[in-house]
């Protein structure tokens, strides 16, 4: 939980109908609505002209994307603009301490890029992605302050400087406006920070860092399957970077969608290190729709390494616009009647299966009540293995599975 100090003399007690309960930092307050919902109230500096700021931030009010902190209200108080947004009970990435690797890093990457895709699909840009604007909430990472930096720049009486150049795209340092490609660059630089604790262009001083962003290649450790993708996102030219939607598809291994043609066997299988990340990505979608999460695995062939088949960085292409005429799904023979019906505990569903099916359900998690996780044993039945834990396949595949929660997995079945 972020540190909340007492209000100081001169701080307002109420802003826009929201009662302030404490101070998070200068100009940023914790508060609550009339319905007792926790909020964050940001009171902007006096040098920000309220009218152009409110006009610039208005499009962000309609953004309700998963993985973002929704703007609830905007307005002006005594000549100063304010923004009220959802309260996220978690620290910013740059204050969390330590670095992320493995499953934790994939979860962060998948959660934040999903939010960025939603922002871009709404025709908006974030404009200020950096470690301080990624909050590690109890329900997953959140991108906050979307559009705030742009709106403040539009309304500033004096020229505003780029606050955190270490995560700023080269074109923005040259004076270009923020765009989707700049967001992708900043997202990738932030993911490198999560893995290393430093910007990939850290130069020891602001001038040296800016020079490195403009001229040098990023400094990256071995990031496994993320390495080639983040390298592509950090390309100097905006046109050479993949779109956020392509990044998301590549994170979950569905590169066949980018070609406009889906052929049998074209979807790459993933090894154990990627599977918990995939589960987390599907879980995020299920939490929105309120349905159960299903982890589906190939019933026939052994897993292959994605790294061995990854596309070279230079071959990444902008994601095409797909339409029904461009995308063709394979037509395969499917048994007309299931050979077995299996009840799925807790979610009130029945699984209809046939031995000839190409995929087999191995595990799932309920997304209501206790968030129980279930895996399949050697008899084919599903058994509970924990609460609030993501079920994941063991390296050997089914029927040996384990719950992979926030702590390291310690049991096998």
Structure summary:
The protein is α+β, with helices and mostly antiparallel strands and 413 residues long. It has 9 helices and 16 strands.
Distinct helical segment count: 9
Shape: globular
Distance between the termini: 36 Å
Mean pLDDT metric: 76
The total domain count is 2
Rg, alpha carbons = 23 Å
Helical amount among residues, as a percent range? 10-25%
**Which structural class is indicated by helix and strand composition?**
alpha+beta
What is the CATH-assigned architecture of the largest domain? Orthogonal Bundle
Tally the beta strands.
16
Determine the CATH superfamily of the largest domain: Transferase(Phosphotransferase) domain 1
Q: Which strand-content bin applies to the residues?
A: 15-25%
Fold-level CATH name of the largest domain = Transferase(Phosphotransferase), domain 1
Q: Order of strands across the biggest sheet?
A: 1-2-3-4-6-5
The succession of helices and strands, N to C, reads: EEEEHEEHEEHHHHHHHEEEEEEEE
Low-confidence stretches: 259-315, 317-329, 397-413
């Amino acid at each position: 939980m972020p540190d909340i100090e007492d209000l100081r003399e001169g701080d307002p007690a109420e802003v826009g109908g929201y009662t302030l309960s404490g101070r998070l930092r200068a100009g940023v307050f914790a508060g609550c609505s009339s319905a007792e919902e926790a909020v964050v109230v940001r009171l902007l500096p006096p040098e920000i002209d309220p009218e152009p700021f409110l006009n610039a931030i208005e499009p962000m009010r309609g953004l309700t994307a998963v993985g973002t902190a929704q703007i609830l209200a905007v307005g002006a108080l005594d000549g100063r603009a304010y923004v009220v947004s959802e309260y996220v009970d978690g620290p910013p990435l740059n204050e969390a301490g330590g670095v992320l690797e493995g499953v934790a890093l994939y979860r962060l990457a998948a959660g934040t890029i999903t939010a960025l895709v939603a922002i871009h699909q709404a025709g908006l840009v974030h404009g200020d992605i950096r470690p301080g604007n990624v909050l590690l909430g109890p329900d997953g990472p959140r991108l906050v302050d979307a559009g705030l930096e742009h709106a403040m720049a539009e309304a500033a009486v004096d020229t505003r400087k780029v606050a955190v150049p270490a995560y700023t795209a080269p074109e923005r340092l040259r004076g270009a406006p923020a765009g989707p490609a700049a967001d992708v660059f900043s997202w990738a630089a932030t993911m490198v920070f999560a893995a290393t604790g430093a910007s990939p262009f850290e130069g020891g001083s602001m001038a040296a860092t800016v020079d490195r962003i403009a001229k040098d290649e990023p400094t990256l450790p071995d990031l496994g399957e993320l390495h080639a993708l983040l390298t592509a996102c950090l390309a100097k030219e905006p046109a050479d970077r993949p779109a956020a939607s392509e990044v998301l598809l590549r994170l979950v291994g569905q590169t066949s969608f980018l070609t406009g043609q889906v052929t049998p066997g074209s979807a790459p299988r993933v090894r154990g290190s990627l599977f918990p990340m995939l589960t987390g990505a599907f879980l995020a979608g299920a939490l929105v729709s309120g349905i159960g999460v299903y982890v589906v695995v190939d019933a026939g062939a052994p897993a292959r390494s994605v790294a061995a088949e990854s596309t070279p960085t230079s071959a990444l292409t902008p994601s095409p616009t797909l339409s029904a005429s461009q995308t063709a799904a394979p037509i395969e023979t499917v048994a007309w009647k299931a050979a077995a019906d299996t009840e799925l505990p807790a979610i009130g569903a029945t699984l209809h299966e046939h031995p000839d099916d190409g995929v087999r359900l191995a595990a799932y998690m309920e997304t209501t009540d206790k968030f129980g996780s279930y895996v399949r044993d050697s008899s084919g039945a599903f058994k509970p293995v924990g609460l609030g834990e993501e079920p994941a396949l063991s390296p050997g595949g089914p029927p040996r599975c384990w719950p992979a929660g926030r702590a390291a997995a310690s049991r096998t079945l």
